[in-house]
Specification:
This protein is α/β, with parallel strands linked by helices and about 750 residues long. Helix content is about 25%, strand content about 20%. It is built from 19 helices and 32 strands. The strands form 7 sheets. It has a 7-stranded mixed beta sheet with strand order 2-3-4-5-6-8-10. It has a 6-stranded mixed beta sheet with strand order 11-19-18-17-12-16, sandwiched between helices. Strands 23, 24, 28, 29 and 30 form a 5-stranded antiparallel beta sheet that branches. Helix 12 crosses helix 17 and helix 15 packs parallel to helix 16. The protein starts with a strand and ends with a helix.
């Protein structure tokens, strides 16, 4: 059998054309409305109110317990903005709202699907639930590139590559906004760690930033038109991100022509002049030291023409997003939704995001009916873990169990930090899938007990967890609470030991050579237990691939020490001691994040970016690169050479320019095939992935470019070569600059 897959540039052009028409209409309407507004009414749109319980503060009466509320202007038909955290689902907010939402798997799990179409479905689900619960703004779209796997928010993000992250994030945003709900992209534009997050200063060269973190946002904005961006807490080359004119004005407005609004992260505003730097909305303003975008901004607008013009533009940017996404004509539905269908979609995402990393002797899938399986650890008898912080989601009935994380100064935030488990127990799912097998569970507190029982089991499955949460970085890549010791003891007692990792990001595996199989399940969401059981028993063929490299040790990272981990007291707030400073140099790796760094340094990873096994076999071949520089295309074949239905991710890498080694992912396609089926794949290469940022624009040098298909970033096939002409692209990413234009 032979089929054909093609990413059609014409279809994308049609989408962009429709998007452009909607943008023009929204711009005209925003200009008309803002011209009729008083300065006081404009202030209503740029000052966001906190809606989560906090001290004696009472939110506005129209607000809903969530993240924030922005009053509308009723006389002009401008609706309020009801905001909720949402990258992984409609958040729990400690149960204060009285309802929960469907929990999607973590961002790393979503990134592991390498399936933008599936993630657009996930976005539509999020938008549907948000509207049903009364919200019309989702603080979704988490897509920061993973420069350090110790970042406590690794689990929220999608991976380490700009093209991969842009495609996955933009798909989710399109899905959300198709339900007339504004989505953000966040955190603009670099959020490398949580330690000292409110004052840490990232130092990085502009070219390196443009070719990595900024490129990811640029591409995602172009492909999804998010109504809002959320700026980050940390500083970038000096100014704080939410008061950074380079980010918010020079790049976002002047270069990219972005028309939506920029909201602050909650508690990230320190002065009224952040408005002049390019910030449009102070969000959750009661967390800040003052309502900087309230009376103070109004007074300046009444007396200073520059501030008045800026306030007008700020309000217009908010109005643009409202009209572009259709909030004025589509108020939140506040209707019931199909919970079962949403849970099934969450399970499908989990299934596609689970990554099989090792399968020695084909111990998986579990065939037949083993006499006895011993399951150890991870609270697998109760549920599957979720990450902590503002993205936490729980079902209407709340979490299965809660494990206290921290107290002391962060006690008021305990409901956001305590470890919670979804109501989806892997042990129950395995018992249902294997009714003829005795399945014994032990919590793994004592490795001696686990090893003793392991000796008599036919198969042992160890669930190992690594908890990550907003506000706290992890100190190293070990499994906490003695789990590495537990796994080593069990593996010594039984050679048929399978490890299921439920982690936020990469972990070291000192026991790797002693176990038979390793499955990375991440935080698998509302139906994670069922998804894991289906993969273990072969009812689902794993197709996930790593969106982030797993290093062998901290010494292989660009920085073996995490900045401030020793000096800055751990805190969810992350303000540090009075006057404390923290600066880190990100020019060490520059734009070579993750797999690019390892390729540059000649370092082999524990598991490379893009890695993932299947229960069948695939063959990639016939790579052919053709076309002019601006329309370069790759064509190749993918064949399922095994004996089971399955899916694989064909990855295309740029590997050298004029014989100089580089490594950049420039295309990928997830392909699902029956045994013996062959598919032709065609990819159009985004020119900026081939370019370097030089003299304030993009430059593709003339010469020979080498490309290779890969099963992962370290397993590359026979290359193909193409000669490209020099191409220069303006900072807007669309305008071709000719030599004559420059002269």
């Amino acid at each position: 059998m032979k089929s054909k897959l093609m990413l059609c540039a014409g279809a994308m052009a049609l989408v962009l054309s429709v998007q452009s028409h909607a943008q023009i209409t929204a711009t005209e309407r925003a200009e008309s409305t803002v011209a009729q507004m008083t300065n006081a009414e404009k202030i209503q749109l740029v000052l966001g109110h906190l809606t989560s319980p906090m001290g004696e503060y009472e939110p506005p009466s129209e607000a809903i317990v969530g993240a924030g509320f922005v009053p509308g202007v009723s006389r002009l038909g401008v609706p309020p903005l009801w905001e909720t955290d949402a990258s992984l689902g409609i958040t729990w907010v400690g149960g204060n709202r009285g309802t929960g939402g469907t929990a999607l798997p973590s961002g790393t799990a979503q990134g592991s699907t390498w399936n933008p179409d599936l993630m657009e479905q996930g976005g539509r689900m999020l938008g549907t639930e948000a509207s049903a619960k009364g919200f019309n703004v989702l603080l979704a779209g988490g897509m920061n590139l993973m420069r350090d796997p110790r970042n406590g928010r690794t689990f929220e993000y999608l991976g380490e590559d700009p093209w991969h992250a842009a495609l996955i994030a933009s798909a989710a945003v399109r899905g959300i906004q198709s339900r007339n709900v504004i989505s953000t992209l966040k955190h603009f534009a670099i959020n490398p760690q949580e330690t000292g997050r409110h004052f840490m200063n990232v130092e990085i060269d502009e070219a390196a930033l443009r070719e990595s973190d900024l490129l990811a946002f640029e591409l995602a904005i172009e492909q999804s038109g998010p109504g809002a961006l959320m700026c980050a807490y940390n500083a970038l080359n000096g100014p704080l991100s939410c008061g950074n004119p380079f980010l918010l004005t020079d790049v976002l407005r002047d270069d990219w022509g972005y028309q939506g609004f920029v909201m602050s992260d909650w508690g990230a505003v320190e002065a009224t002049d952040f408005a002049m730097a390019g910030l449009d909305q102070q969000s959750g303003a009661q967390i800040d030291e003052d309502l900087f975008f309230g009376d103070a901004l109004l007074e300046l607008a009444q007396t200073d023409s520059d501030y008045e013009a800026r306030l007008t533009q700020m309000a217009q940017n908010v109005l643009y997003a409202i009209y572009y996404v259709g909030l004025d004509t589509n108020l939140p539905t506040r209707e019931d939704f199909d919970k079962a269908a949403h849970a099934e979609l969450s399970k499908q995402i989990a299934e596609e995001g689970i990554v099989l990393l090792k399968n020695e002797g084909d111990v998986l899938p579990i065939f037949g009916a083993p006499r006895q399986i011993l399951v150890i650890g991870g609270n697998a008898d109760a549920g599957t873990p979720s990450g902590g912080g503002s993205s936490r989601v729980a079902a209407d009935e709340g979490p299965a169990i809660t494990v206290p994380f921290i107290r002391g100064s962060d006690a008021p935030f305990a409901s956001m930090l305590d470890q919670m488990y979804h109501n989806s127990a892997p042990v129950d799912a395995l018992r249902e899938a294997l009714p003829g097998t005795e399945i014994i569970y032990r919590d793994g507190r004592y490795s001696s007990e686990a090893a003793m029982l392991a000796e008599d089991a036919d198969l042992v499955i160890v669930f190992a967890t690594q908890y990550q949460t907003e506000g706290y970085d992890v100190a190293d890549l070990s499994l906490p609470n003695g789990q590495d010791v537990l796994i080593a003891a069990v593996a010594e007692a039984n050679e048929n030991t399978i490890i299921v990792l439920e982690t936020g990001g990469p972990v070291a595996m000192p026991w790797l050579n002693d176990v038979s199989a390793v499955l990375e399940a991440w935080y698998p969401g509302a139906k994670g237990g069922e998804a894991i059981a289906k993969v273990l028993t072969g009812k689902v063929n794993p197709s996930g691939h790593l969106p982030i490299s797993f290093p062998k040790s901290l010494d292989d990272l660009p920085r073996s020490d995490l900045a401030g981990l020793k000096e800055v007291a751990p805190s969810f707030i992350g303000k540090g001691a009075p006057g404390q400073t923290l600066t880190e140099n990100y020019d060490i790796e520059g734009s070579d994040i993750g797999y690019r760094w390892y390729a540059r340094e000649g370092i082999k990873t524990l598991f490379p970016f893009g890695a993932g096994l299947s229960y069948t076999e695939f063959n990639f071949g016939g790579l052919s690169m053709t076309g002019p520089t601006a329309e370069l295309k790759a064509r190749f074949e993918v064949e399922n050479t095994g004996d089971a239905d399955g899916a694989d991710v064909a990855q295309l890498y740029l590997t050298s320019i004029n014989d100089k080694p580089v490594q950049r992912l420039v295309g990928f396609q997830k392909v699902r095939l029956a045994p013996g089926e062959v598919t032709d794949v065609s990819l159009t290469i985004e020119p900026r992935l081939l370019a370097n940022w030089t003299d304030d624009h993009w430059v593709i040098d003339e010469g020979t470019y080498t490309f290779a298909l890969g099963y992962d970033a370290e397993t590359l096939l026979e290359p193909d070569y193409v000669t490209l002409e020099r191409l220069e692209i303006a900072s807007d990413g669309a305008t071709i600059i000719t030599s004559e234009n420059q002269e």
